[in-house]
Amino acid sequence: MIYLLAIGSAFFYGAADFTGGLTTRRAGTIPVVVLSQFSGLALLVLLLPILPPAAASRSDFIWGAIAGLGGGVGVALLYRALSIGVMAVVAPTTAVCAVTIPVVYSVLRGERPAPLAITGILLGITSIILVSQQRSAGEPGRGERTGLGKLPLGVGTALISGVAIGFFFLGLAQTSPAAGMWPLVASRSTSVTLFACIALARRSSFRMPGGVLALVLLAGTIDMLANALYLVAAQQGPLSIVVTLSSLYPASTVLLARVVLHERLNLLQVTGVGCALAAVVLIVSGGT
Fold it and tell me: How far is CA 24 from each of CA 30, 97, 208, 215, rounded to the nearest angstrom?
């Protein structure tokens, strides 16, 4: 059951990332992040009275706030990367970085990854190199490199986003099962406050077409559902396995990008995307 929750969170994370990245191509990153994060927070607050009673400690709120900082920054950078880059490249790149953070944390705490997990990490690094390869001559597209030695659009941002999301995963996993959904309240309140202040400082406009606004609110709602599924799984199951299962989210992002946006990749980049997904699977397998 725990692993099904983690896989469910992966599906919804991928759908939320696709929707958020799509709307960010039509509106500013900061307004999209503020409105989507706020919609998720509002949904959670409305549901709290009907959820099972929970007792969160001060530590739970602190870890929730830390997760909120990492998650807020990570989502903002991810939406930006998805809006300027190829979704099928950006999403796996972010996932590999996100799943690596908990693995490193486990190693520092004395755990030793299984050979399969180590292979997965190495394969993930290889995938990042592959997705950064130049398109074939004369083939236009968002993923085209802008110069020698430069990554495709969005990949550099995706790397930083993945690190931030990794700390989000790690932060929520430190909370106790008795805390219920309160760590998510602390997390989302922190991220909404942070980006609302940034929006005010930049005098960002929140005007956008009704259809785009609806997609933004939908992205925030789906993302909150994914967060709730992950939190329950991480509070009750082994972190290394739960977080890597949740990091399978590029599969749904890539599928949606292929079906809806008709994104195409060259052979090396297709291989890189496949390696990224395989890396996550190997890490999961190494933790069982």
Answer: 9, 22, 11, 10
| End-to-end CA separation in angstroms for the chain | 15
How far is residue 186's CA from residue 66's CA, in Å, rounded to a whole number? 9
DSSP per position, 109-135: TT----HHHHHHHHHHHHHHHHHTSPP
Q: Under a CB-based contact definition with an 8 Å cutoff, are residues 254 and 87 in contact?
A: yes
Give the pLDDT score at 65.
94
Strands (E), the chain: none
**Segments forming the whole domain that contains residue 8:** 2-287
In angstroms, the CA 103 to CA 283 distance is: 9
Whole-structure pTM value:
0.81
Structural domains in the chain (count): 1
The answer to whether the CB of 95 falls within 8 A of the CB of 280 is: yes
Is-contact 172 246, C-beta < 8 A? no
d(CA 109, CA 103): 10
**Is residue 92 within 8 Å of 273, Cβ to Cβ?**
yes
Percent of the chain with pLDDT over 70: 90
State the DSSP code for 177.
Answer: G
Calculate ∠ Cα 228-234-235, nearest 5°: 90
Separation CA 3–CA 233 (nearest Å): 7
Tell me: the pLDDT tens digits for 129-178?
676 665 544 444 444 444 445 666 788 888 899 999 999 999 998 999 99
Cα 170–Cα 44–Cα 22 angle in degrees, nearest 5: 75
Query: What's 146's DSSP letter?
Result: S
Closest C-alpha to 227, from 2, 6, 77: 6
